[in-house]
């Protein structure tokens, strides 16, 4: 199976990839240097665990996963999505959205109520998924639960990781798809060539702003920590803010997964590592484990929601207040 990624216009710095030795994930499997593709990105099949979770070859549309260049109507929609995303996600836009949405003054509801609400949402940016979101949430959570039965925080993290997609709904401001879903990347520094459909950044006002492009760090510094880096605005950062501001007791790794699960340039291609600190590196191991379930559990397997619901309600009670501000 191959994953085609838009050919980078700018070749990203290679030193970070070269300096990494084999990567050992907490699940006990090893990703060696030679599983990286021509674009320098790790091939998803290399992240297949050694235990029961078997990754399917194709998605619900009969294509390999994250096949952004395949010719189909849906692919054209995905490309148009990234064109808009890359043009409009500027540093100033992200700052404004973050300030606005961290007020959490829109809705009050429980985590489970939000899971049900998310059923009304379909993600245009995703070439693999054409099912109600709650199925994807439970498929991901149940697949992880099977392989990591003792990490209950990871099961709950999987269940809630996409809840921020409610930003698409009118009561949350009805944001356009390009401001909610899709891969994320840092703003305030150069747009790395490995970002999918990179060519569209040339129409982003930040692309030619010297302040953000004079070095690979932009406005940031070496090892500054991702916490101090602004990411393109979307459901990841929003759900992170919701969880944190409502006082969740999820461990840091859970919050990191929620906040960066769409940051494919980092967890698939290994770029932007120069902005990470030690804590980010530890958390990234969990994110890589999570990601293979997030990606490959988008299959046509149906789940009995009522059967698994009591387990997830007990986790919600353990890690969250009964009602959250959104
Ligand atoms: Fe997501
Ligand atoms: Fe997801």
TrEMBL record:
How is the cofactor bound, in the record's words? Binds 2 iron ions per subunit.
**Where along this sequence does the record place binding of substrate?**
66, 123-125, 165, 182-183, 261-262
Q: Which UniProt keywords apply?
A: Ascorbate biosynthesis, Cytoplasm, Iron, Metal-binding, Oxidoreductase
Give the enzyme's EC designation: 1.13.99.1
Top-rank taxon, per record: Eukaryota
Q: Which GO terms describe its molecular function?
A: inositol oxygenase activity; iron ion binding
Record's protein name: Inositol oxygenase
Source organism per entry reads Rosa chinensis (China rose)
Native organism taxonomy:
Eukaryota, Viridiplantae, Streptophyta, Embryophyta, Tracheophyta
């Amino acid at each position: 199976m191959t994953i085609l990624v838009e050919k980078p216009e700018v070749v990203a710095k290679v030193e970070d990839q070269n300096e990494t030795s084999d990567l050992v994930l907490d699940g006990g499997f090893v990703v060696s240097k030679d599983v990286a593709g021509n674009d320098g990105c790790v091939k998803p099949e290399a992240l297949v665990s050694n235990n029961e979770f078997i990754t399917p070859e194709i998605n619900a549309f009969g294509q390999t996963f994250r096949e952004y260049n395949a010719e189909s109507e849906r692919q054209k929609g995905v490309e148009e999505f990234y064109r808009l995303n890359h043009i409009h996600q500027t540093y100033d836009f992200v700052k404004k959205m973050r300030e606005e949405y961290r007020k959490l003054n829109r809705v009050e509801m429980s985590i489970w109520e939000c899971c049900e609400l998310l059923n009304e949402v379909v993600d245009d940016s995703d070439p693999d998924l054409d099912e109600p979101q709650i199925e994807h949430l439970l498929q991901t959570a149940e697949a992880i639960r099977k392989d990591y039965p003792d990490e209950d925080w990871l099961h709950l993290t999987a269940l809630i990781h996409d809840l921020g997609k409610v930003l698409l709904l009118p009561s949350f401001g009805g944001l356009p798809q390009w401001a909610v879903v899709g891969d994320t990347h840092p703003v305030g520094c150069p747009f790395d060539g490995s970002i999918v459909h990179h060519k569209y950044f040339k129409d982003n006002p930040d692309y030619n702003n010297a302040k953000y492009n004079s070095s690979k760090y932009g406005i940031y510094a070496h090892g500054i920590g991702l916490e101090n880096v602004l990411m393109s605005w979307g459901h990841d950062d929003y759900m992170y803010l919701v969880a944190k501001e409502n006082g969740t007791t999820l461990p840091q790794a859970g919050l990191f997964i929620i906040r960066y699960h769409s940051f494919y340039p980092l967890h698939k291609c290994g770029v932007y590592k120069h902005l990470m600190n030690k804590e980010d590196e530890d958390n990234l191991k969990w994110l890589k484990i999570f990601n293979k379930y997030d990606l490959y559990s988008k299959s046509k397997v149906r789940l009995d929601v009522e059967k698994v619901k009591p387990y997830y309600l007990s986790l919600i009670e353990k890690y969250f207040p009964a009602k959250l501000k959104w």
